[in-house]
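Entry for the shared binder. Reason: the reviewer on the internal report wants the predicted structure included alongside the sequence.
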Amino acid sequence: TNDQLVAFLSRYRDMNFLKSHGRDNARFIRKQGLDRLFLECDAHMWRLGDRRIPEGIAVDGGSDWFLLNRKFVEYVTFSTDDLVTKMKQFYSYTLLPAESFFHTVLENSPHCDTMVDNNLRITNWNRKLGCKCQYKHIVDWCGCSPNDFKPQDFHRFQQTARPTFFARKFEAVVNQEIIGQLDYYLYGNYPAGTPGLRSYWENVYDEPDGIHSLSDVTLTLYHSFARLGLRRAETSLHTDGENSCRYYPMGHPASVHLYFLADRFQGFLIKHHATNLAVSKLETLETWVMPKKVFKIASPPSDFGRLQFSEVGTDWDAKERLFRNFGGLLGPMDEPVGMQKWGKGPNVTVTVIWVDPVNVIAATYDILIESTAEFTHYKPPLNLPLRPGVWTVKILHHWVPVAETKFLVAPLTFSNRQPIKPEEALKLHNGPHRNAYMEQSFQSLNPVLSLPISPCPGGAGTEERSLRGHSAGGMAGLVGGRDVDCHGHLCHGPHGLPGHADLQPDGLELLQP
């Protein structure tokens, strides 16, 4: 508890609690890049060259989570002695200064006898998953990052022997169950009937954030979801000769939340404003939009049984093995990643084929699946823009269909957060030049896969549909629909997608609570 932490630190108020890397200093220096010069510029950490470690200094380091006492903090902050001055200068050009500066200064200072090799926390390291150079786009170095705790890691809390008051990392969008388990372990169970214990909501947009915080893709789709909720509301309350739930959308969506239940993504909650034309009153409604299941095993099923799941998205997190772009909101200028989840079995090679909405084969490649592989992911170098509509990714083994998954590339109604112009829509919504997603053409495979070749992909017909969609209120006009319940200010309903006027309702679905 917090009282226990206060009592512990009060008892040892003269000590400093830091976790050291161990005894192999040379290895630590290489791993941390302390013998290299780094400089941050334009949101990137650049490696500039080599440098020497200061002589006569015992370099130490470890976790950048620590507890320091007041005396040492004042020494580091205000001292002008050679040690502090030179170390501040040295660590000004270091990749991860907080993981070594305080350790090194403490160990070489008059306060060295106050160091305790324990930072009072458990960190969930899994080097196999956490050391994948996943941050190369922002730093010229390969480092490691701890994983989020999950239920299978719970034994670590029970087995700790040293004083421990903190743990990391926890992330409810990755796993909330472990947080509930730890709550119960520390404080006992919640009262019977406590609501929402397995639910989690995370706000990703609110009006004060301003639409500049949204991409054109998310802004387009949030508007689409809101309009779909209004259409379902009108449909649900319409009777012959009466329409008492007719709405006109007002402004941008007010807020957007991600919703999870039992550690599964359940969709978006879009709060939006509209005028109820029946009573000339401004109302606030909420629409729940949930992704459909679009992964499908081939029928009849093949003899190949290792594939468990496949998905396409962006922002793939190789450490936590999920797409951070929850819901898979993709636009023409996105670069999608194909992911597959595998069961154990013999080494095999599978073929992956990407097919655009008019049956242009955009990419095909083979993946060697080793016997111990659990996940594979690959981002094909597709030429942009991607053609809007429903794409299909097929997985074959010896050219026998194993499974397929679909994903939506949404056409845009906004460009730089402003309504898109017709000429921009034409440029973005007709696919790449000459339908060439890659230098090599794969159209000879169409007969093999029984895919009819569109007579004029990207031709005049597509341009006409693009213009018609834009003039009708945007490229993300909503389609599809069953009945919907409209209870007060909360509207829910079945499916409907943003897309061209003739786009089929695959990919996203509105559900009742």
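Summary line for the report: The chain is about 20% helix and 30% strand.
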